[in-house]
Design a protein that fits this description.
The chain has about 120 residues and is of the alpha+beta class. It has helices at about 1-10, 20-25, 70-80, 100-105; strands at about 30-35, 40-50, 55-60, 90. The chain has one domain (about 1-110): Aminopeptidase (3-Layer(aba) Sandwich).
């Protein structure tokens, strides 16, 4: 988790996140994925789901040296095809700059975004 914490604490979506939060998020996720090359972790992804109706893809990260090789798409495809995540009504995610990656595996902009809301607690770091 040291490497994952280092990656995530330096991203735009979780800058400075505590290692304990990274570990707790992984522990309580329905699926946690890592990609390893010669024993070294080069990518990470997790899925939060009730495994019946809904799933959220979060913390997708590919080490800079390994980007552009399809690892992000491979992790997302694996998650979408995972037996415990079949027949869900909805998958969601948020991204600032990887829309093309997710579109390539079937994601589209929110349908009726005017129906969606969020709650961002002041202490939600």
């Amino acid at each position: 988790m040291e490497r994952v914490h280092c990656w995530l604490s330096n991203t735009y979506w979780s800058p400075g996140i505590a290692r304990e939060k990274v570990e707790r998020a992984a522990l309580f996720s329905s699926l946690v994925l890592g990609v390893y090359l010669e024993g070294e972790q080069v990518a990470y992804c997790r899925v939060v789901s009730d495994r019946a109706t809904f799933a959220y893809i979060g913390d997708v990260y590919v080490d800079e040296a390994h980007r552009g090789k399809g690892l992000g798409k491979a992790m997302i495809r694996y998650a979408l095809e995972h037996p415990e995540h079949q027949d869900l009504r909805r998958w969601v995610l948020a991204t600032l700059d990887a829309h093309d990656v997710y579109a390539a595996v079937g994601f589209e902009p929110l349908v009726m975004p005017e129906r969606w809301m969020s709650y961002l607690p002041k202490s939600g770091s």
